[in-house]
Amino acid sequence: MRCGLPTLCMLIAVTSLVSSPALAQNVWSFEARSLAMGNAVVAVADDSAAWLQNPAGLPYLMTCETSRSPWPSRLSATTDLGLEVDTIGVNFSARERAGRQGVGGGYWHLGDYELNPALSLSIERFGSGYGARVGENLSVGVAVAELDMQWDFAQMIYPQQSPEAIAIYSGKETIIDLGLMYRRVGAWGEAKAGAVVRDVADNMKTTLDIGVAYRTAGGLLVTAEMRDATDEVDGMVNLGAEYRPPQAPELTLLAGLADGDTTYGAGHDFMPWSVSVSRQHLDFATETAITLCASF
Length: 296
Prior knowledge:
With about 300 residues, this protein is mainly beta. The chain has helices at about 5-15, 20-25, 30-35, 50-55, 165-170, and strands at about 75-80, 85-95, 100-115, 120-135, 140-150, 170-185, 190-200, 205-215, 220-225, 235-245, 250-260, 260-270, 275-280, 285-295. The protein has a single domain (about 5-295), classed as Porin (Beta Barrel).
């Protein structure tokens, strides 16, 4: 599986309708920053999509340094440029100023995407998450989301397939994720290790994601993760990097490998606003996404 949207849909179709729910449940991080970093987010989880990337990261949310709110927050909207379908992601996350706990929520929508003249797919996902510190260096979190997949392949079988047959491969499922994060900070920088058990109720397929991240004092962040580490569905390795030049900290340079596919991007802060753009060179397509974010 790849992190791009059309690519995801194509792979879902190719790998068969039976396995599609398990694959689709991993559509959970639609932001330009994470897409540009190879979608390696389990040990980062500090932007507005943290509630779903790893809810245990919510207490460590990146926020505007000048915010006077008791709950500094981030709100973002993302779209994929060039697609002939309505695609949008909206995410919100906030943390207590003292960093003891955090909350978030979001919505992701892929309109009727035509895989071929006989097959199309639409996906909606919305939910919320909560994370809290349980010690000086450890935090835990939980996210609950509803995933609604609607397949339309009525023209695939002649005569037209019955609504009952289509319903077998369409519908809503509730997904519960449990997250864990360990964080250490020192003069040398910041180190984090994260893990997320996705779909703990096994409504689609329970999987385990694990990752590590290290941010230097000089503004470089590097991260690596294993998605579906036990290879229940489709294991993959994602790598990512982010760099903020000390001489221009408002700029962000991003790069990564999403299971071997090249990703990159850039961002710019206009506090309290920021914008980021990602570019992904995937197996089936080259895709571009843009995110507008407000910190308050």
